[in-house]
Amino acid sequence: MNHNHLGKGLAAGAALAALAASAPASAAATPAFTCRASAAYLELSGATRAEPLVANGITDGTNPDRAACADDSGLIEADVKIPPGPVTSPQIQLLGLFAKTGIDPDGGQTAAQTASAEAGVARPVRIDLGELLVTADVVEAQTSASCVGGVPTFTSDGDVVNLRINGTPVTGPLNDSRVIEIPALAKISLNQVVQDDAGDVRGIERRALQVDLLNLPGLPPVARAVVGEAKSGSTGAVCAPTPTGPTGPTGSTGETGATGSTGATGATGDTGATGDTGATGPAGPTGPAGPTGESGATGPTGETGATGPAGASGPTGATGQDGTDGTNGKDGTNGKDGTNGKDGKDGKDGVGTPGPAGPAGPAGATGPAGSSARVGSVVQASSIPLNQRLLRIDSRSLRLGKSGLNSQRMRVKVYCKPVAATSCAGTLKVRSAEKVKSGLTKSAAIKRVTFGSAEIQLPRRAVGYVKLPVERPKQQLLNQKLKSLKVVISATVIDGTGKRQVIERTVTLRG
């Protein structure tokens, strides 16, 4: 990743040097995919290109590309000025610069690889050319190169959000190729695409926003400011299978190795089991009678005998004293009721308040079942071309908030792209990329941990932040144990037509 700045000796007004080809041609080029991504740069006549953030490239306006694509990325969150220092003209002021290139897989045959590049700014950009001031909220360009049907194939995507010229909003589509001419002053190009499909050196280049400050008629521009440039290409026959060389002759048999030393004596075996008991021998002759033994001890006392018959009755006893009086008996039953008296005259009608409402009647019969809703099939982002993805995840790292409104929450920056019908809706979650210990105890399971989830609801062409609360046990796990780890941001989104997609991005989460 290169970070360079323009020197103070630049002077506006000189002629701009012409851009050279994006990659040198070779008659016997080694097959390889190429890529380059630049967040922004400024070119003036007679001066080196000023380019603060480039992925897999060289800050050289004549030959800025490397021979092969490689994984590279960079992000600058702070304010960047090109050239640096106080406000001058011309000058580009930017926030949230990013540039990324990738080759997937890293090795193997080129026919199975995909090269990609993306660059731009995720926050407002300001291009000051003196009489002309151009601003935008988001600027992005993306390209890719791969083999489809045995032929190098290139795609691109990009967007410019909320473009203004001298404070006046530019209406109409901003995600297609477009040129805005300001006579005798400047030319503004949106989503400029240059593609070369012939020869050994092929490729595609996309510039999201290019502003040329015009010179006198017939002369090159005085200054050129570019924000969001992405390149993907190929050199040589990248889609041809790599030939396998002939098998070499079999090597001669090596000499027999020396005899190994005698092994150690084995351990003594276990003792054998005890044999069966032999058969009983014949009985011997009867011996002489022994002496008479001593008398045995007295036996126990016998049980008690049965009870004898009852004796004769004794004489009658004297009469006892009188008992106490008994309690009174129960009351008798009531007599029959007397006859009713005559009915009295009817009273006047009362004026009462209405009574409470009666209970609800029984539920009506269930209506017929409605027709089944149509649910679009879910499509993984890896199989979706860049220019057809509904949502873009802009966050390149996550941090757990420590104070204020974002305390113990993560913020994920997303952009609902113009390809969405009306809006992007769904859910977003953050989950560990690998299995980790899910708690602080020794018995905690090792698994993939989901740190938080939240809903997405964003209008088309809008940038927003999804805030995901993190539960306390997972806060403690992150702060005390893991410190930082790779996580996957996964967004399942649906647009107004029912189209569903799953968009993912792997970043680093820090406590």
Q: Overview of this structure, please?
A:
It is built from one helix and 28 strands. With 511 residues, it is mainly beta. A six-stranded antiparallel sheet has the order 2-1-17-16-15-14, with no helix packed on it. A hairpin with an 8-residue loop joins strand 23 and strand 24.
What secondary-structure arrangement, pairings included, does this model have?
Layout: E1 32-44, E2 54-55, E3 72-76, E4 80-82, E5 91-94, E6 97-104, E7 114-121, E8 125-128, E9 133-136, E10 138-148, E11 151-161, E12 164-165, E13 168-169, E14 178-182, E15 186-196, E16 201-213, E17 223-235, E18 378-380, E19 391-393, E20 397-399, E21 409-416, E22 423-432, E23 436-437, E24 446-447, E25 450-459, E26 463-469, H1 472-482, E27 484-494, E28 500-510
Parallel strand pairs: 18-28, 20-28
Antiparallel strand pairs: 1-2, 1-17, 3-6, 4-5, 5-8, 6-7, 7-10, 8-9, 9-12, 10-11, 12-13, 14-15, 15-16, 16-17, 19-21, 21-26, 22-25, 22-27, 23-24, 27-28
Mean pLDDT: 75
Strand order across the largest sheet: 2-1-17-16-15-14
Which structural class matches the secondary elements? mainly beta
- Give a quick account of the main beta sheet: strands, pairing sense, barrel closure: 6 strands, antiparallel
Alpha carbon gap, first and last residue: 26 Å
Number of helices: 1
* Helix content percent band: under 10%
Order of helices and strands: EEEEEEEEEEEEEEEEEEEEEEEEEEHEE
Low-confidence stretches: 4-27, 295-299, 322-326, 349-355, 366-376
